[in-house]
Design a protein that fits this description.
This protein is of the alpha+beta class and 142 residues long. The chain is 22% helix and 43% strand. The strands form 2 sheets. Strands 7-6-5-4-8 form a 5-stranded antiparallel sheet.
Length: 142
């Protein structure tokens, strides 16, 4: 539903995060464009999505809608993102321990079958099932 609105406006829906809180949840929408994202772009998308969310009501209770660019530490949500940014430095937080670790940092190698592959600084290749990743972000290289 959100992707259709965002893409019709000429933007890419990078991903959606929902953080439930007792009093007021947060619905964060990441959008991008080949020319980058400005504050005006975020406001336009927010206005359109607010109308759709008010009508469709996919979120119950109070929530704050936040529309944002992915930024330099861009979040990675799906297999296409992990392939697109292969070669970049990435920080991954896992849902559960993998060989005693919950956090991995290394060079993203892309997808290998249904696993995200990264090479850590010690030269070890890690393969992580996509569904075991809680969060993944690019590490800005300045």
């Amino acid at each position: 539903m959100l992707a259709a609105v965002v893409e019709a406006m000429g933007y890419e829906l990078v991903g959606v995060e929902f953080h439930a809180h007792r009093d007021n949840a947060l619905l964060r929408i990441y959008v991008d464009n080949e020319n980058g994202i400005s504050l005006d772009d975020c406001q336009r998308v927010s206005h359109q999505l607010s109308g759709v969310l008010d009508v469709e009501e996919p979120v119950t209770g109070r929530y704050t809608l936040e529309v944002s660019s992915p930024g330099l530490d861009r979040p990675l949500f799906d297999a296409a993102h992990f392939n697109r940014f292969a070669g970049s430095e990435v920080r991954i937080q896992l849902r559960e321990l993998l060989d005693g670790r919950r956090k991995l940092v290394g060079r993203l190698l892309g997808m290998r079958d249904d696993n995200v592959a990264i090479m850590d600084s010690e030269g070890r290749e890690w393969r992580v099932p996509l569904d075991r990743i809680e969060k993944a972000r690019l590490v800005p290289e300045l």
